[in-house]
Amino acid sequence: MSGAADLNRNRAVDWALMVYILLAYAFVFAPIAASFVFSFNSDRFPSLPLGEFSLEWYRAVANDPLVWQGARNTLLVGVAVGVISTVLGFGAAYTDYRYRFAGKQVYLALALLPPTIPVVILGLAMLAYLSRINLSGNALSVIISHVVVCAPFAMAIIRLRLSQMDPALEPAAWNLGASEWAAMRHVIIPFCAPAILGALFITMAVSFDEFAVAWFVSGLNETLPVKVLGFLQGQVSPRINAIGTFVFILSMKLVILAQLLLSGRSARVPEKE
Amino acid sequence: MVPEPQALTLPAGGASLPAGAPSAGVRPTMRRRISLYGMTFALPLLIWQILFFFFPLVFLVALSFWTVRNFAMQPDFDTVNWATMYGRTVFWQAYGTTLALAAAASVLTSLLAFPAAYAIAFKLSDSARRWAIFLMVIPFFTSYLVRVYSWQIFLSDNGIINVILGWVGLGPFPMLNTVLATMIGYLTLSFPLVVLLQLFSLAFIDRTLIEAAHNLRCGRVRTVFEVVIPSARTGLVIAALFAFILSFGDFVSPIYLGGGDPTTLSILITDTTKSGQQWPRAAVIALTMIGTLMVVAFAAVKFAYKGKST
C-alpha cells in the first residue's frame, strides 16, 4: 500500500470517501437490521416510534403448521441440494483442473452459466419441462432445479482450492505407485476437504434463500422462502421479519463456518516458490 | 520410475495431460484418452446440466409454438403465440419499461457503487478491506424477499423515513409504489455484487500507473478518469452487465416496491404462468428476454475487452 500513502494528499476528499463507505454499508444493512429489530416489535404495521417488545410474531410463526412444513421442506431440499451440488461441482472442478479436451469451453459454459439466467426464465423453463416429464410439483423438482443453480458455486469454490495445490503433488503420488483412485482419495480429496465442506455450506445457504425457481416448481410443497413470498402477497405481516431473522441466523452460521474453513487454508498452505 | 518430464508437463493450476495418461508405463490401458476415471468426475455435472438446464431451455423454444385449446396445452407448430404477444401494445410497453428500468438501474448502481469500491480499494488498510469485503458478502445470504419487505417498512406513507421527515416538518412523501422504490429494490439486489466486482477490478490496477500519473502532475479527479477507470474498464463493464441482468429479470421489486405499475416483462411472465395455462405465451416473453440479454451481454463483453488481447 505504499502507493496509497502518496495519494493521501487531500484530507477532505478522504473524509468524504470514508463517510461514503459508511453510507453505502448503512444502505446495505438498513433493511437487514430493520427486519431484525421489527421482528421483536408488537406493531402490526411497523414504523417509528417502536412499539412494545414482543415475541408474538415468533409465536405466530411457531404456531403455523404450514410454516413448520415449509421449514422441513427447506431443510430437506437444502441438505440434498448441498450434497448433490458439492459432489457434482467437485467432479467438474477436478475435470477443469486436470484435463484439456475438445469442447472444454462448452463444458465450462454449461457448468457455469445457470446462475446468470434470470430466475423467472429458469423457473418457467423448469416448470414447463419438469411437468412434461411428470417431475413437477414436489420437493424433488425443487432439488433438481436448485442443484442446477447451486452446482456452479460449488465448482467455483473447489476450483479455487485446486488452483492453490502444488501441481506436482498428484503426479508425485502416481510416481510413488498410487493408482489414480488412490491419489484422488489420499491426496486430492484431503487437500480439498475445507473447500468441499465450504461448498456444501454455501450451496445449502443459497438453497435456503432461493424463492423464485422454487415458487415456480414447488406446487403445494412450498419451501420457507416461497411461504414468505406468500406472506408478501397476502396481508403484509411482520411474520416475515420473524422468519427472516430466523433464517438469517441459520444462513450466517453456515456462511461463517464456510468462511472459517476456507480461510484456514492460508495457515496450512506453504507459499509456492 | 516415471521419467521426470512427464510430471513437469503439468502446468500450474491448469489442465494438462490428455485424459487418463498420468503415470506412463504403470498401466498402459490408462493411456486411452477417455478413461473411466476421468469420466467419473466429468460426466455427472455435464449430464445434470444437459438434462435439467439445457433441455428445459430448448423445451421453452418448442413450447412457444404449442397451442392452448380448452385450457390444455397441445404440442403443435403454430406461430400464434408469437403473433399474439408481439401484436399487443402492452407487451411492447412492458418491454420498453423493462429495458429502461434495467438500463437505469445498471447505470445508477455502477455510479453509486464506484466511490465505495474506490474508497475500499485505495483508502482502507488491508485488514479493514478484508472486513469490508466480508460485510459486503453477507447480503448474499440474507433473503432478498425479507429485505424488500423491510424496505416497505422504510418507504410506506407512515414508514420510518416519512416519520423522521415529519419530525423536521417535512412530508409525508409518497415513496412506496413509485419508480424510486423499484430502483431502491434493484439497488438492494445488485449493489453488493457490483461493489465487489468493481473492487476486484480496481485491486488489479498497477499502482505504479497511478503514482506515475501523480508524478506527472495529473490531478486526483483526472487520474480517476484517465488512469483508474480505463484500467479497470473490463471489470466495471462486467459489473454493470450483472446489474443489468439482475434488474432485467427481477419481478419482486417492481411488484412489491413499485406496485406492479408500470408492468415489466418479468411481471408479465409470472402473471401469464401462474394464472391459467398460457405457458406458451410466457415462453415467448421468456425467449424475448433471453434474446435481449444475449445481445446486451455480447455488446457489453465486446466493449469490455475492446482493444485487449483476451
Explained architecture:
The complex is a heterodimer of chains A (273) and B (310). Chain A has 273 residues and is mostly helical. Chain A folds into two domains: 2-38; 66-266, MetI-like fold. Helix content of chain A is 75%, strand content 0%. Chain A has helices at 2-7, 11-38, 56-62, 65-98, 104-112, 119-132, 139-162, 169-175, 180-209, 212-217, 224-233, 239-263, 265-268. The longest helix of chain A is centred in the first third of the chain and has 34 residues, at 65-98. Chain A starts with a helix and ends in a 5-residue tail after the last helix. Chain B has two domains: 1-34, no CATH class; 86-304, MetI-like fold, CATH 1.10.3720.10. A two-stranded antiparallel sheet of chain B has the order 1-2. In chain B, α4 packs across α8. The longest helix of chain B has 35 residues, at 89-123. Chain B is mostly helical and 310 residues long. Chain B has helices at residues 4-8, 36-63, 80-86, 89-123, 126-137, 144-155, 160-167, 179-203, 207-215, 220-231, 233-249, 252-256, 265-274, 279-304; strands at residues 67-69, 72-74. The two termini of chain B are 40 Å apart. The chains are: A mainly alpha (273), B mainly alpha (310). The interface between A and B is large, with 109 and 113 residues.
Key terms for this structure?
heterodimer; A: 273 residues; mainly alpha; MetI-like fold; 13 helices; 0% strand; disordered N terminus; B: 310 residues; 2 domains; two-stranded antiparallel ribbon; 14 helices; 68% helix
